[in-house]
Amino acid sequence: MKEESEIKFKHLIEHLDGIFWEADAESFEFSYVSPQVENLLGYTADEWLADPHFWQDHIHSDEREYVVAHCHEQTQQLNDHVFDYRMKTKAGTYIWLNDRVKVHIKNNKPFKLTGLMVDVTEERKQKEEIAQESGLIK
Fold it and tell me: Does the structure show a pLDDT above 90 at 109?
């Protein structure tokens, strides 16, 4: 029964419209990245997992310091959190991701993070176009 549940869970995770991931709460080293990473960013899960600093190194340089610090701070405060940032694709372009992070706690300390990264590039572009058309931004 447990094995059947695990198969169903894995099937669900690997068919979500986003990248499901798991990482260490201290080092932010990823232990799992779902196969959708290849469709979204162009990298394979193996490429991501081979580099302990992959996540940090692929965040846009304008946001990297804030994003990593924010995630660390929220994790240490045991807060689940949601934030947007740009991430570099294998093609060298950037897409906006909405990252929803769950902090897993053991002995009143964070030990693992899980999350879902969803591409919000098109949604963001549409909002910006609407704002420009209505004169809210130039």
Answer: yes
